[in-house]
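Explain the record.
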Amino acid sequence: MSTFTPISYASSDALALYARDYPATGGPARLPVICIHGLTRNSADFDELAPLLAAMGRRTIAVDVRGRGNSARDPNPANYNPVVYAGDIIKLMDQLGIARAVFIGTSMGGLITMTLAARRLDLIAAAILNDVGPILSVRGLQRIAGYAGRCGTLSSWDEAAAYLRDINACAFPANSDEEWGKWARRAFEQKDDGQLALRYDPNIATAIQTGKQRPTSLAARMAFRRLARRRPTLLVRGALSDLVEAEQADWMRKAAPELHYAEVPDVGHAPMLTEPAALDAIRQFLAKLP
């Protein structure tokens, strides 16, 4: 079982936020890593990756973005957007005294990382974008919008696993029953009445439903170029991804020839980052960083 210290901190608008702090456990101390999850996920997504990073001598912080996991729900759904999220990350780094970090951003977490690059590139030493970029496939966005914020409560862990299988089997066709069960334990929480609910505010879906994460945003393209041309950046793409399809990945590699690239076979959106191909790429990428 991984060991971490819970972190509580306040956003600039006084929302109570949460993160996990995995201390470096091996080798000389190196630049810390900040892990940011996807739209409907939480810090537990990194409970297998984070200890591996910590064993490389890198303190690893996995956040619960506002509205997810143990972070408070925002009474104003308009705040569920990458600009506000990036501000929360800046507050966290200030509290922890972290001047620079390596960022790992899955899906929405990558959008937050690119937004941060546009505002405070000095905070980013390097970045790993997990199945995300400035141009996103409409097909993938529509699929995510079709389920985000729409699940009610469920009565058993088997139902929770079945729900996740229904909406994600296209991305993880080889997942075992055990893997779906582990995912359910990360994604759901049991309420006082025994019912299971997803660990996020349903209003987080506003960002997609109102078009605040448009796939052809000029600002997003500029932010990506600024990041990938001025900081070491690795793109990890699921070979079956419907969000970052081959066409989008090709554009990214042409827009920033310095971009490192790894493709994870037999996985869609988004890799867990513990797959052998992903983990090998991450290890090689981090080995070149201080």
